[in-house]
Amino acid sequence: MKKLLPLLALVFSVISVAQTPCVNGMAGQYPCNGLDLQSRISLATFGTDRGNDSWGWTDPQDGREYAIMGLGNGTAFVDITDPINPLYLGKLPTHSSSSTWRDIKVYNNHAFIVSEANGHGMQVFDLTRLRNVTNAPETFSEDAHYNGFGNAHNIVINEETGYAFAVGTSTFGGGPHFVDIQDPVNPVAAGGFSGDNYCHDAQVVIYDGPDADYTGREIFFGSNEDRISIVDVTDKSNPVGISVGFYGSIDYTHQGWLTDDKRYFIIGDELDEANFGFNTRTIIFDVSDLDNPVVHFEYEAAVEAIDHNGYVLGDEFYLSSYRAGLRVFDISDLDNQNFVETKFFDTYPTSNSARFDGAWSVYPYFASGNIVISDIDRGLFIVKDPLLSVNDNNIANFAIAPNPATEIVTVSSKVEPIHKIEIYNVLGQKIIDLNIADSLSEILDISKLQSGMYVMKINNTTTKRLLVD
User: Could you tell me which residue ranges the Secretion system C-terminal sorting domain spans (predicted)?
Assistant: First the structure.
């Protein structure tokens, strides 16, 4: 496979817009601030006329990064390891008919795909097949199919438990439909929850937040049309509603994401801009007491665009904002009601009005710092903050040994003292955070890490890949 990559890059680089730095507020034709355009692949290249959702996968075997983009007529898979020369590897066609809506999540090296298309069910695709593509772009077949529901608006996966939660189906009143996917190619129905409204989107976590009453429980945070809905789904045969939360000027509670400390739930209302005249509005719920979620504050942006999908990575919130493109916010001081835009990349340069065009979703969890934006009209964008995620190949000051490692790894420096070490998994979740008295060598115990690829960040500037056997 590796011998074929230069040829594939030559063939497919002609179909993408190449790297364009953000200079004086523009990256070519795209307004920007703090984010460079790495490349773009058009919808025509994917053989479709519309795009929708996006997600990502990092191969734990070699650290290669792949963008997954939902299309009207299927799902595209793109190797973005070289983000300036992305490789379109192929498409998995829709299981039934075409649809405006398609959603993808990843678990255990498999993609799980749902759609609003009638009779679509849930497709399962083995992502390790992307290692061996020799005749790109290929037309892929699904590796498994789940027909416990027909159409679904969205799918949520808790990777810690191996359960998928399809939402917006015709089952359980539109509430979450549970599927055991611990064996990805043999999905098994596991019940559902019908005790609240139709659910549009959600996040599910093993709870480790400030409410000690629910520590260790599997908690579902739903965006349920006119409310947020918090449900204990630990026992799949007996899920229990905990509480609901409301806010002012509700029109359509669309999607939300928890901060890392589980204290706040950041949501967007998809229709309030067009119907109430707000500029882009974000509502921050205080969920430190799961039995009593309350609005902490609201933020209104300077543009009119409709907000769509938003995701938290550390102290930043990445929001796909339709005609305003990707907007990035500093959320490090939510306690004091500070929500500050720091970067943006506008994939729809002609207007920021409240209409349904432009950036549908964003995936910011690649260890490389590359960010995927899926645009309804213009295809797949890869952008990056040039000040972050220094390339491994340019770093000689630090060393990791042994690598791969099993129980102990030594981080050493030739010149610069080591004062901070962080380790992230392939989802971008920080799992080790160490502050160190300045030292030129530090020994780390990694015996509790599962086998796979991790990213080590040293002194907040330098990234290194770490393989754990």
Answer: 401-465
